[in-house]
Amino acid sequence: MIPLGSCTMKLNATTEMMPVTWQPLQICILLLLPNRHRGFRATQKNILQEVFKNLGDILCTITGFDSFSLQPNVGAAGEYECTGGLTSPWWIGVDVCHLNLHKTFCVPHGGGGPEIGPIGVKKHLAPYLPSHPVSKPLGTVSAAPWGSTLILPISYTYIAMMGSQGLTYAYNIPILNANYLEKRLESHYPILFRGVSGTVAHEFIVDLRPLKTSAGIEPEDVAKRLIDYRFYGLTMSCSIPGTLMIEPTESESKAELDRFCDALISIRQEIAEIEKGTVDINNNVIKGAPHPPQLLMADKWTKPYSREYAAYPAPWLRRVDNVYGDRNPSATT
Predict the structure, then answer these.
(1) Residue 283: left (phi > 0), alpha (psi -120 to 50), or beta?
(2) End-to-end CA distance of the chain
(3) Tens digit of pLDDT for each residue in 210-228?
(4) I need a surface site. Which of 2, 172, 191, 305 has the fewest CB within 10 A?
(5) pLDDT for 22-43, tens place per residue?
(6) Which residues, other chains included, contact 283 with Cβ-Cβ below 8 Å and sequence gap of 6+?
(7) CA–CA separation, 204 vs 182, rounded Å?
(8) Residue 67: its H or E element
């Protein structure tokens, strides 16, 4: 599990990624570069434009907007964001917003890119969308007329395969997952910003600020200790300093969610030992995390806790269970 968030890692089907490798599509993209736009063949242009038009029409249907520009590579090219991952922006009265296709529509965003952030508007704002000399010279926000063109088929394929019911179901799951995590963790950590019904959306914020006073623990310390539990570090101080944001995707099983909760609960117990004064506030397993192999295998060990506890704080970390995999095969159709 990578709890950093859905805009970082979503489970991408191979089918969605295959168009990126298609040479005819890559050639079409090259021919769309600004200094080549007069030279590309009409058939290639029509193929791509059909994909772009269909994707734009689908996004309009989903959001209730009248027009979309696919040109912005990222939300920063038009930061009018309305998130709501089951509520149509049109339904709540929004006139303009950008969509993170890398968040909701499966464009892989790990490692810093690629991104794409189309801007959707109501009819009265459509004339002011960014354009390009390929279409009309109103103004551009990206060098290419359709932004990150090569990755648009990823979202298009994902939406086409999922369909309306599939998309709705997929968006329900991360909300369910987030609320499951929140309920398991609420008795161990303060949770910020619940709704009126006591629930959270697809992400929630854990408040670690009291731990700085009680145990000298910062969000970075918890994130680093999570690495020892074989989890990727969480988003730190998003919106509020001294907090952690947890954002599961729809890709995680209940067993993986429980394993993640168990890790955070175990870390909270480690913090409690600091609060009790049974371990040193400056020299403890959390402040020493993460524990890389070169430290664990060094000839000399000077920490006040054992190597074993540093490296294997949970039972699932001790071995790879090959036998389980052999005895519990899974099949896909």
Answers:
(1) beta
(2) 24
(3) 999 999 999 999 999 999 9
(4) 172
(5) 766 665 555 554 444 454 555 5
(6) 303, 304
(7) 7
(8) strand 67-69
Collapsing DSSP to helix, strand or coil, 4 comes out as coil
The neighbour count for residue 242, using CB atoms within 10 Å, is: 14
Sequence letter at residue 217: I
**158 pLDDT above the threshold of 80:** yes
- The token duo for 7 is 């805009």
Pairing of strands 67-69, 119-121: antiparallel
Residues in the chain: 333
Helix residue spans in the chain (DSSP H): 14-17, 23-30, 42-63, 101-104, 152-185, 209-215, 219-228, 254-276, 293-296, 307-311, 322-327
Q: Answer whether 282's CB lies under 8 Å from 297's CB.
A: no
**327 phi and psi angles, rounded to 5 deg:** -90, -10
Written as one letter, the residue type at 35 is: N
Q: Give which of 244, 254, 203 is closest to 224, Cα–Cα.
A: 244
Q: Which residue bears the tokens 């040109």?
A: 71
Say if residue 83's pLDDT is above 60. no
Q: Which residues, at least 6 apart from 145, have a Cβ–Cβ distance to it below 8 Å?
A: 32, 34, 37, 71, 132, 133, 134, 135
**Which pair of tokens denotes residue 190?**
């303060």
Q: What is the pLDDT, as a whole number, of residue 148?
A: 77
CA dist list (Å): 175 to 27, 200, 273, 277, 295: 40, 8, 33, 38, 39
